[in-house]
Amino acid sequence: MDSQEQLDSLEPLCRRRTSVIETPPTLEEFMKAGNDFFRASPFFLRLTKDEDPSDTNWVLGIIFLRWLARNHAFLDASVGSTVAAAPSPTDTLACIEAAFQDEIPGTAFDPELLEFTVRYFCMAAPYFSDFFSLFPQDAMPSPDAMWDKQEEVYAIIDSRLRSWRNGEPLVRAVLPMTDQQGDAEPATPLDADVWISTLATLSDAAVTHEGCCAYADHFYTPLTKPASVEVVLAVMKEFLRNPPHDASVMCAAENFLSDIPFSRYVKAYSILAPDLLDASSDAALNLFNYPGCELTPRQVRQFIKKLRRCNPERDVVGELAQLAIAWNSEDDETFSIVIEAAQKQG
């Protein structure tokens, strides 16, 4: 090729470059190109394991892939079931690499869940801020610590998917910041369903000192909205655990309940009262005595009225009165009103 031919071959390239400089892509075009790139290959960069053994970012991708597998997102069901059943991050990675090598094409996934992956996992990465909000005091948790949080992560992703399907934007969570003394600011607020499912997971795991601490800490995790009756019920049901959690741990639950508005607290207790009476007379009496607040006689009577309205086929007030007498609580102002109300009803 002579010099003129070389110049001729460069002309189209120069023209393209000049055009790009003169007319840069719009933000919409740029975002579309990014979406198309991630849609074609959503895990190419995220999944690759670095040579640096201290780099654990690849585990985040593995956990998200397992969530996809659990939700039947893989079009090849045999690959999905293998990924979902893998017992560790490295085993999961081996399954993925055996099926796809280094790159998982977007065509391997259900179209709807692929689109969710592009929006939530790839673009702006809300997934990563959600994930690290579970580790407010740990800048880079170990792979084992990440793996142990799977169920909590799945609950968050499930909530995000529901929001996305309802047309809500996928906004990044605000990560907790740590001050110079090492104290973490409050964790990212959780939706009620995520908060409740996380509570159940942590409650099951509260069998070690670390597990009990994580369980107790959860009661101080904020909600995106004021605690609903469903949230209050979930907390009250923790007092029905068999075997029960240690009383020192349940102080955190009592502190949580002490901040619940009286009307909401009464409604939740009235719904749960039969279960409390059947399973734990201790809890039935203790929770009737609204934690952290001395009820006025008027509030006690409102409480009694709500109990009867919610339980027309069972004399829960009479049963509470009998328990109060058995516990020698007749001199307690709150329970003396309960006993009096039961006697009048009888």
Please render the helix and strand layout as text.
Blueprint: H1 3-22, H2 27-40, H3 44-47, H4 57-70, H5 77-85, H6 89-100, H7 111-122, H8 126-132, H9 143-148, H10 150-165, H11 192-204, H12 209-218, H13 229-237, H14 247-258, H15 262-279, H16 281-288, H17 297-310, H18 316-326, H19 333-345
If you had to describe this structure to a student in words, what would you say it looks like?
By secondary structure, this protein is mainly α. It has two domains: 25-182, no CATH class; 261-346. The chain is built from 19 helices and no strands. Helix 5 packs antiparallel against helix 6 (89-100), helix 10 runs antiparallel to helix 11 (192-204) and helix 12 (209-218) packs parallel to helix 14 (247-258). The model is unreliable at 1-22 and 174-184 (pLDDT under 50).
Which terms would index this structure?
64% helix; 2 domains; 346 residues; disordered N terminus; 19 helices; mainly alpha
Span between N and C termini?
109 Å
Give the low-confidence spans. 1-22, 174-184
- Structurally, the number of domains stands at 2
The residue-averaged pLDDT reads 79
The level of helicity is 55-70%
Strand percentage lies at under 5%
Along the chain, the helix and strand elements come as: HHHHHHHHHHHHHHHHHHH
Give a short summary of the structure:
With 346 residues, the chain is an all-alpha fold. The protein has helices at 3-22, 27-40, 44-47, 57-70, 77-85, 89-100, 111-122, 126-132, 143-148, 150-165, 192-204, 209-218, 229-237, 247-258, 262-279, 281-288, 297-310, 316-326, 333-345.
